[in-house]
C-alpha cells in the first residue's frame, strides 16, 4: 500500500467529482448515453468516483477491481443480451476502466476497451473531462452498434443517468 496513494485519495475526496461533473455536465453525459443507446440494443452506464475511502482504500483496491465491484453492484451484467457496459472513472488515480458483460466483451476484447480508456485518459490529462467522457460513450456505442444493432422496440433496461460516488 502506497502512502502517496492514500494521501491522494484522502485529499482529493468526493468534492472533486462534483466540481468536475456539475449537474449541467452530468445532464449532457446522460443525453449522450440516451443518444448512443438509440443506435444499439446495449446498455451503457457511466460512474465517476472521486476517491476511494474505507476498506477499498486501505485494502489498496485497484481501479479495475473497484470497477468490477461497481459493475456487479449496479447489476450492469443483468441485461437480456449480456451487453451492458460500465465506463468507470476513479479520479484520484486518474484511471478509466471499462467493464463489459460477456456478450459484448467476447466481440470487442480487452484491447478494444483499453484503447477507448487510453483515449479518454488523454482527454482528461488536458482537462477535457466532459469531452473525454462523451467521446468515450460514443466509442462504446459504436462498438455496441456494430455487434448489437437496434432490434425493434427497445426497452431501456438500465438508467442512463451518470452515477457520482
Description:
The chain is of the alpha/beta class and 165 residues long. It has one domain (3-150, 158-164): Roll (Diaminopimelate Epimerase, Chain A, domain 1). Helices cover 54% and strands 13% of the residues. The chain is built from seven helices and four strands, in the order αααβααββααβ. The chain has helices at 3-11, 15-20, 23-37, 54-58, 63-73, 102-125, 129-147, and strands at residues 43-49, 84-90, 95-100, 163-164. The chain has a four-stranded mixed sheet, sandwiched between helices. Strand 2 and strand 3 (95-100) form a beta hairpin. Helix 3 (23-37) packs parallel to helix 7 and helix 6 (102-125) packs antiparallel against helix 7. The protein is globular. The protein starts with a helix and ends with a strand. The mean pLDDT is 91. This is TPM domain-containing protein. InterPro entries: TPM_dom. Residues 19-141 form the TPM domain.
Provide a compact summary of the structure.
The chain is α/β, with parallel strands linked by helices and 165 residues long. The protein has helices at residues 3-11, 15-20, 23-37, 54-58, 63-73, 102-125, 129-147, and strands at residues 43-49, 84-90, 95-100, 163-164.
Key descriptive features of the protein:
TPM_dom; 4 strands; 13% strand; 4-stranded mixed sheet; TPM domain-containing protein; 7 helices; 165 residues
| SSE order | HHHEHHEEHHE
Distance between the termini: 22 Å
Helix/strand-derived class? alpha/beta
The helix fraction, in percent, is 40-55%
Find the CATH topology.
Diaminopimelate Epimerase, Chain A, domain 1
Radius of gyration, Cα only, in angstroms?
15 Å
Kindly state the mean pLDDT as a whole number? 91
Strand order of the largest sheet: 3-2-1-4
Given this structure, which CATH class is correct? Alpha Beta
CATH architecture: Roll
Poorly predicted runs? none
DSSP E strands, number: 4
Amino acid at each position: 500500500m502506497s502512502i502517496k496513494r492514500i494521501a491522494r485519495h484522502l485529499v482529493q475526496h468526493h468534492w472533486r467529482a462534483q466540481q468536475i461533473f456539475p449537474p449541467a455536465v452530468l445532464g449532457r453525459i446522460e443525453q449522450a448515453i440516451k443518444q448512443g443507446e438509440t443506435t444499439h440494443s446495449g446498455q451503457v452506464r457511466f460512474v465517476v468516483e472521486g476517491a476511494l475511502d474505507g476498506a477499498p482504500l486501505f485494502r489498496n483496491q485497484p481501479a479495475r477491481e473497484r470497477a468490477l465491484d461497481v459493475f456487479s453492484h449496479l447489476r450492469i451484467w443483468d441485461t437480456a443480451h449480456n451487453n451492458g457496459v460500465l465506463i468507470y472513472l476513479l479520479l484520484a488515480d486518474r484511471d478509466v476502466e471499462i467493464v463489459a458483460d460477456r456478450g459484448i466483451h467476447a466481440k470487442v476484447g480487452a484491447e478494444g476497451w483499453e484503447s477507448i480508456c487510453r483515449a479518454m485518459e488523454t482527454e482528461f490529462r488536458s482537462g477535457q473531462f466532459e469531452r473525454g467522457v462523451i467521446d468515450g460513450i460514443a466509442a462504446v456505442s459504436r462498438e455496441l452498434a456494430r455487434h448489437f444493432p437496434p432490434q425493434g422496440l427497445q426497452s431501456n433496461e438500465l438508467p442512463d443517468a451518470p452515477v457520482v460516488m
